């Protein structure tokens, strides 16, 4: 049985939402099927199959360079603009925040929690009005605030960043807030070891 997306129920699976968001929110780049499979932690055959469906629908463009299959958003499709807006509001936080936070020194791990993560994991409820982000590490608060403002402009919704030290995150039992974050759904943006 296939799981329908709760963030954008028009899509037949969360993977389709993540894939489309990545491609449409990074329209200036093309990604290989291998890169996409690694990013979404699925097999290359799964990504290849989904890309073929999206290409047949005219939503993505493909380019072959030898054995390399490159994929990007087809911005000439009349659905591109409204689809990009829908994707920014639904699956956009994962795509946008991964880019923004991976460029900041001192970010060891980062997670989306709260209503967005709950909808992503299938918990029914209203559409998220904001995005809550937990950053683990010693990143500069000004850099995190700049990233949050940049994400807000791209996503069209408020982004709240809460930073904790790695030591505090490891001993979350002592902090009611961190215990609460751990006990509820979360979506990993950057996990320990992602940048190695």
UniProtKB/TrEMBL annotation:
<feature type="domain" description="HTH marR-type">
    <location>
        <begin position="20"/>
        <end position="64"/>
    </location>
</feature>
<dbReference type="InterPro" id="IPR000835">
    <property type="entry name" value="HTH_MarR-typ"/>
</dbReference>
<dbReference type="InterPro" id="IPR036388">
    <property type="entry name" value="WH-like_DNA-bd_sf"/>
</dbReference>
<dbReference type="Pfam" id="PF12802">
    <property type="entry name" value="MarR_2"/>
</dbReference>
<dbReference type="InterPro" id="IPR036390">
    <property type="entry name" value="WH_DNA-bd_sf"/>
</dbReference>
<protein>
    <submittedName>
        <fullName>MarR family transcriptional regulator</fullName>
    </submittedName>
</protein>
<dbReference type="InterPro" id="IPR043519">
    <property type="entry name" value="NT_sf"/>
</dbReference>
């Amino acid at each position: 049985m296939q799981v329908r997306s709760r963030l954008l129920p028009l899509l037949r699976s969360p993977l389709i939402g993540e894939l489309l968001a990545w491609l449409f929110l990074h329209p200036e780049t093309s990604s290989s099927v291998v890169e996409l499979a690694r990013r979404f932690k699925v097999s290359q055959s799964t990504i290849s199959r989904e890309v073929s469906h999206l290409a047949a629908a005219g939503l993505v463009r493909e380019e072959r360079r030898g054995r390399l299959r490159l994929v990007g958003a087809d911005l000439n499709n009349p659905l591109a603009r409204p689809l990009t807006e829908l994707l920014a509001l639904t699956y956009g936080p994962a795509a946008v925040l991964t880019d923004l936070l991976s460029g900041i020194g001192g970010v060891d791990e980062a997670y989306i929690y709260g209503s967005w993560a709950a909808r992503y994991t299938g918990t029914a409820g209203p559409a998220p009005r904001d995005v809550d982000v937990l950053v683990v590490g010693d990143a500069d608060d000004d850099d995190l605030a700049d990233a949050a403002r940049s994400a807000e402009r791209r996503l069209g919704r408020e982004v709240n960043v809460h930073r904790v030290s790695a030591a505090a995150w490891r001993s979350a039992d002592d902090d009611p807030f961190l215990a609460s974050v751990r006990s509820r759904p979360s979506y990993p943006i950057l996990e320990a070891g992602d940048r190695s």
